[in-house]
Design a protein that fits this description.
Blueprint lengths: L1 H18 L2 E17 L6 E7 L6 E11 L2 E10 L15 E8 L2 E9 L1 H8 L23 E9 L6 E8 L11 E10 L2 E13 L2 E14 L2 E11 L7 E12 L2 E12 L4 E12 L4 E12 L7 E2 L4 E2 L11 E10 L1
Antiparallel strand pairs: 1-2, 1-3, 1-19, 3-4, 4-5, 5-6, 6-7, 7-8, 8-9, 9-10, 10-11, 11-12, 12-13, 13-14, 14-15, 15-16, 16-19, 17-18
């Protein structure tokens, strides 16, 4: 009897031992807000319930398996969710879908991944690419590239605070320009200091390659954090250059955090928009906070630059040149 019981215990323990070498985590963010948005154009004001004013609402799965000798298999699948409607993104795991290997050499991922420039843009944005007034509007209108499908990506381990990232996205075209993207970024993260720079080259037209660049920096001193960046999208052809600059500061006291950011966007043809944003967050716990956010842009008579948050956009219509958009929200965010 004891032998039979021992056999049952050992049989039950075998899969547990195997699973101890691997793990899968389910995680996500639920973020919703009541917002007042105004494109600045006649009839452009509306009151809405938005999903993701601070962080895009999402659900994800990430896992790791220990392969021995310091080598691990890793994966991440992440899907966007609209809390206001219950709808998902048009691509199920369009936010991130990668699998790869991690070891002493760094991490190699294959699939749909964030670009090297996106890493620098996120790290150097005082809003963390959330709240109205984030630098995400630099990634709209086919300017800078935030994610690449059909890609192979590499990220080094920290070398004295220095991290190198590289990505190659395949356009997978049969004829014409390849649409391939090559990207590289170098970041330094140590001693409360951040400095990063990135570069992309995209073969969109046969006549030449589009170029994308970013430089970002920041530092933390006690409760004060300062972040800023300068981004350039220079598509093939004359008069197409886009530039954006951000400078922001935040201050934390107790469960409270205040954010402020100044932003300027301009096109080579003379369009210019000057904007600012303010946000406030109160932490109810480590996972839950309430917040309010406001942003405004003053466009000149050639511009239609818009306001972006993590999950919402407020952009004047193409014909409403010179319109000044603004947005205000009050929301709640929970991470799990």
């Amino acid at each position: 009897m004891q032998c039979k019981l021992m056999a049952v215990v050992l049989a039950a323990a075998i899969p547990l031992c195997a699973s101890a070498q691997s793990s899968v985590t389910i995680y996500g963010v639920a973020d919703a807000a009541l917002a007042k948005e105004d494109t600045g154009a006649p009839g452009g004001s509306r009151t809405v319930v938005n999903s993701g004013n601070q962080s895009t609402s999402r659900v994800g799965f990430r896992g790791v398996e220990d392969l021995g000798n310091g080598l691990s298999a890793v994966f991440n699948l992440e899907a966007g969710v609209a809390l206001d409607s219950g709808m998902g993104d048009s691509s199920l795991f369009g936010r991130r879908s990668v699998v790869g290997l991690k070891g002493g050499f760094g991490t190699v991922m294959i699939g749909r991944e964030y670009t090297p420039i996106a890493d620098v843009a996120n790290a150097s944005d005082i809003n963390g690419q959330g709240f109205y007034g984030t630098n995400l509007n630099s990634f709209g209108a086919n300017r800078l590239t935030r994610r690449i499908s059909n890609s192979v990506n590499y990220k080094s381990n920290s070398m004295g605070g220095v991290i190198v990232s590289a990505g190659y996205g395949l356009g997978e075209t049969v004829t014409g320009p390849s649409l391939d993207l090559m990207g590289l970024a170098v970041e330094y993260k140590a001693n409360n200091i951040y400095v990063g720079a990135g570069y992309h080259q995209v073969e969109r037209l046969a006549s030449g390659d589009d170029k994308e660049m970013i430089f970002g920096a920041g530092f933390t001193a006690g409760p004060v954090e300062v972040r800023g960046n300068y981004m350039v999208a220079n598509p093939t052809g004359n008069g197409n250059k886009y530039e954006q600059a951000n400078a922001g500061v935040s201050y934390t006291f107790g469960a409270n955090k205040i954010y402020g950011n100044l932003q300027q966007s301009k096109l080579e043809g003379g369009a210019k928009g000057n904007g600012f944003s303010l946000a406030y967050s109160y932490a109810l716990s480590k996972r839950t906070n309430v917040y309010t956010s406001y942003a405004s842009i003053r466009n000149n008579n050639k511009a239609t630059f818009g306001i972006f948050s993590a999950g919402a956009t407020v952009v004047p219509p193409a014909g409403a040149v010179g319109s000044d958009p603004s947005a205000f929200s009050v929301g709640v965010r929970h991470s799990f």
